[in-house]
Design a protein that fits this description.
single chain, alpha/beta, Rossmann fold, about 35% helix, about 15% strand
């Protein structure tokens, strides 16, 4: 069952009767393929075909050409448009060609780094030594990564506290650094984005010290100004490739819009799928004397919270009929 059949079944669901306000079928677009200016290495082309990729999309070919030329690029296209191939292909081609270049991939979370690590290792390229370098990496694995790895996947914090302060240990890796990949660009905003910008500029100063000039490849979801954001992060001009010019849609997408259920109505439970009755209103009963009979809440220490005290509890009779403050009772 494909996505279109699934949406058709959802549209015909009796539970959506009266709530489905719009249904439209968007016409499919023609595929837009392109080839790099310089043909890919034959081994890389064979591995792409074995992974089910016969030809590259236009935005992928454009990004590969720019990275090969040593330029900075930001790819801001839709979900599942193949942004990972934009930087994986140049990295794999560099290893297959026998060059000793290195690549540094920066992801905002460890989970994304682990996912990309599996994707890069799935190329099964001899000589491609990809590892993650984060807070969970063991000491022996860190030592091996510094001495042998040519593709390192990390996060901005680990780059700041684990790699750059010990740049002398990473001298060989940084001297050969050719590609720096920054994924999830749209998340690098505000304070986090400002800190990441300082870390990337610090990385460039260290690379300049060792005589390397890496190219940046930023990957982002579709945002309004990917080029300006990427340029402000690295402090260099960045070529912009957006999804307005390319598309990876080959099937006819279906658009559905439904109104949410009214507030105060209960949706059918998972176990009630066979009994599709109309939603029943939720009735909540509350005693009119709920405030009077309410039990005192408990604090974090587990003790009962002190009940509210009136003026009579806070004072005691004094001279000349006046009331004077008294000590509060211990809880």
């Amino acid at each position: 069952m494909d996505a279109c059949e699934t949406l058709d079944r959802i549209a015909g669901d009796p539970e959506l009767d009266g709530r489905l306000v719009h249904s439209a079928v968007i016409a499919a677009r023609e595929e837009r393929f392109a080839d790099p200016v310089t043909p890919l290495h034959p081994d890389v082309e064979a591995r792409l075909r074995s992974r089910g990729t016969e030809r590259l999309w236009r935005h992928q070919a454009a990004a590969i050409d720019l990275l090969r030329a040593g330029e900075n690029v930001v790819v801001a296209t839709g979900t599942a448009s193949g942004k990972s191939l934009c930087y994986q292909v140049p990295i794999v081609e560099s290893v297959v060609s026998g060059e000793r270049d290195t690549a540094l991939l920066v992801f905002p979370t460890k989970a994304l780094a682990q996912d990309q690590l599996r994707s890069i290792r799935s190329w099964l390229v001899p000589g491609l030594k990809a590892v993650t370098y984060d807070g969970d990496t063991a000491t022996d694995d860190r030592t091996w990564a510094r001495r042998n790895a040519n593709v390192v996947l990390t996060n901005p914090e680990m780059l700041h506290v684990g790699i750059l302060p010990s740049h002398k240990r990473w001298a060989t890796f940084l001297m050969r650094l050719r590609y720096v990949v920054v994924d999830e660009l749209h998340t690098l905003r505000g304070i986090f984005g400002s800190h990441t910008s300082h870390v990337l500029r610090r990385l460039l100063r260290v690379c300049d010290h060792y005589g390397s000039r890496p190219s940046f490849c930023f990957a982002s979801a579709t945002i309004g100004n990917p080029g300006d954001l990427a340029s402000s992060l690295c402090g260099q001009p960045v070529h912009e490739i957006t999804g307005r010019r390319v598309t990876a849609l080959r099937a006819r997408p279906r658009l559905l819009a439904a109104t949410p259920p009214r507030r105060g109505h209960r949706r059918a439970h998972v176990g009630e799928r066979g009994d599709r009755r109309a939603p029943q209103p939720v009735r909540r009963r509350r005693s009119p004397d709920a405030r009077v009979h309410a039990q005192p809440a408990r604090c974090r220490a587990g003790r009962a919270a002190r009940p509210a005290l009136s003026l009579a509890h806070l004072t005691r009779p004094g001279r000349q009929g006046r009331r004077v403050p008294c000590r509060l009772p211990r809880p």
